DNA sequence: CGGCTTTGACCTGCGC
DNA sequence: GCGCAGGTCAAAGCCG
């Protein structure tokens, strides 16, 4: 864990000293966030989040920095700028000294990525492996060991969300494990992308140890396929997990901390509801709203292409019009550039029933 | 029947 | 080399 940026989050606790207060008073957007994950330079993360969510806003088509102060003739940009500013204010409200009541559900708290050379190499390796196996019915599990990389070299994006924001990404995830984590009373759930067996994308979900209403999402690797127009299957995710089955936890177990058992060397499988269970319940309540929000945040129309923001500004996933039509199908209407304004009064249509 | 979660076992990275 | 902790596998069972 020595090299990757996540260290800033999950490293040893930093004491919240007075200098942080001075820093915050002097620089309204330079906040230091401390919790059980350690200390974070919010200004830096703010910039990175801006890049992650709105890379096209910071860079033009040629990946050159955009000077918005002198660029007001571009309709989309001039329209979007206040929205972007408001959105990022929302994103970082929980890190402010006194968070407002209407804090956003999604907060990027850290990303880390390889240096450009390694990033490109990893992408090429990944692409090569996909090409190698995509045409056959090869068992991907045999491929898995080859694709494994040192954990601290993997690209990661850490997002802090509220409970309502847990289901806010439209990818289809399949849970493959859950482990109690040292230093946290809540277990961590492991998900992989279920859209494609060759997809290396991973997601980890864990509850914040300081605020049980906050969830830490860690995304590892990238999807190597277009975003699905709808989640793979509802089998399993819509089932009632609160029926009285021997293994199923009860409703009272929601948010219950892990109690370590000596039955397993890993103290696994405590009688607590998993993050996925919480997520499923929330998903039923807010799936439409959150997928809508996430879609509106991530999708940008740019000259006939749809760009999904990725960690590197130079490393977009650019999809053709076919994919975009798929999204339109999902939306149920023809997107217009004005729809990028994802204000509360201009939400994505609710078609995820 | 396919896809899901659960969960014990196993694998791997890393610090000492 | 050893042990710990995190990450993954895979069998079992559930659900639509």
UniProtKB/TrEMBL annotation:
UniProt cross-references to Pfam families, sorted A to Z: WRKY (PF03106)
Major localisation: nucleus
Gene Ontology CC entries for this record: nucleus
Coiled-coil spans in chain: none
Region spans: Disordered: 13-32, 132-151, 242-274
Gene3D superfamilies named among the record's database cross-references: WRKY domain
Example GO molecular function: DNA-binding transcription factor activity
Compositional bias per record (Polar residues), positions renumbered to this chain: 134-143
Organism listed in the record: Mikania micrantha (bitter vine)
Protein name in the entry: WRKY domain-containing protein
UniProt keyword terms in alphabetical order: DNA-binding, Nucleus, Transcription, Transcription regulation
WRKY domain mapped to chain residues: 162-228
UniProt xrefs under InterPro entries: WRKY_dom, WRKY_dom_sf, WRKY_plant
Localization annotation: Nucleus
SUPFAM superfamilies (alphabetical): WRKY DNA-binding domain
């Amino acid at each position: 864990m020595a090299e990757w940026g996540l260290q800033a989050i999950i490293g040893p606790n930093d004491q919240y000293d007075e200098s942080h207060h001075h820093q915050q008073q002097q620089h309204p957007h330079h906040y230091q966030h401390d919790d059980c994950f350690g200390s974070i330079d919010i200004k830096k993360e703010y910039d990175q989040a801006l890049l992650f969510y709105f890379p096209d806003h910071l860079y033009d088509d040629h990946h050159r920095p955009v000077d918005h102060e002198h660029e007001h003739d571009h309709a989309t940009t001039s329209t979007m700028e206040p929205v972007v500013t408001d959105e990022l204010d929302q994103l970082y409200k929980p890190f402010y000294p006194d968070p407002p009541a209407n804090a956003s559900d999604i907060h990027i708290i850290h990303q880390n990525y390889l240096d450009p050379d390694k990033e490109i190499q990893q992408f090429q390796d990944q692409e090569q492996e996909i090409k190698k196996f995509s045409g056959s019915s090869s068992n991907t599990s045999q491929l898995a060991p080859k694709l494994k990389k040192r954990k601290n070299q993997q690209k990661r994006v850490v997002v802090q969300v509220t409970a309502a924001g847990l289901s806010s990404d439209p990818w289809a995830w399949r849970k493959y494990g859950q482990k109690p984590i040292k230093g946290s009373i809540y277990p961590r759930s492991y998900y992989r992308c279920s859209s494609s067996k060759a997809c290396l994308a991973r997601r980890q979900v864990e509850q914040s140890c300081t605020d049980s209403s906050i969830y830490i999402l860690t995304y590892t690797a990238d999807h190597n396929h277009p975003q699905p127009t709808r989640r793979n299957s509802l089998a399993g995710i819509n089932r009632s997990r609160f029926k009285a089955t021997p293994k199923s936890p009860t409703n009272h177990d929601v948010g219950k901390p892990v109690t370590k058992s000596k039955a397993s060397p890993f103290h696994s499988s405590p009688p607590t509801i998993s993050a996925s269970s919480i997520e499923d319940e929330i998903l039923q309540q807010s799936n439409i709203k959150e997928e809508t929000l996430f879609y509106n945040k991530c999708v940008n129309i740019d000259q006939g292409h749809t760009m999904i923001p990725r960690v590197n500004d130079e490393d977009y996933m650019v999809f053709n019009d076919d994919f975009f039509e798929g999204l339109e199908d999902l939306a149920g209407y023809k997107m217009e550039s004005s729809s990028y304004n994802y204000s509360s009064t201009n939400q994505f249509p609710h078609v995820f029933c």
